[in-house]
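Onboarding guide, step 5: your first structure request.
Type a short instruction followed by the sequence, for example:

Predict the 3D structure of this protein.
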Amino acid sequence: MVELASDFEDDLREAILDEVEQTVRDEIGPQLKQAARENFEAYANRHDYDIEHIWQDAEGPIVSRDGDSVQLRVEWPELTALFEFGVSEHTIEGNPLLHFYWEAKDTWVTTESVEWGSETGGIPESRAVRDALNEVRRVVSA
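The system replies with structure tokens like these:
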């Protein structure tokens, strides 16, 4: 009869978590980052946006382990959420005035308010990160 050490369950749990952590770091994290990049690139091409900084400045994958869980994090640069979730048309109020360069008109503008997105309809949502997460979930679940 085979006898198991009294702490075999702890050793097994640690070995499984080691394997999960390595898989997340080497496979799942890079897949998530690449899928999001491809989604953002396709979105940028569809809308003629210059947003390469989103995938170029993304940090990670960052993998951490706490107790019996493994976490994966990718940090996209500030304002990425504007493209991920989109932005409706809205008014920007100056206090006291707004002063900006309007490239399309090749002129400097000073005004009390701007109807932002009035010409473009705002920024459509990309769903790049959310769709990448869903894609990776499907691969991992299969």
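Each response can be followed by summary notes, for example: The CA atoms of residues 17 and 96 lie 56 Å apart.
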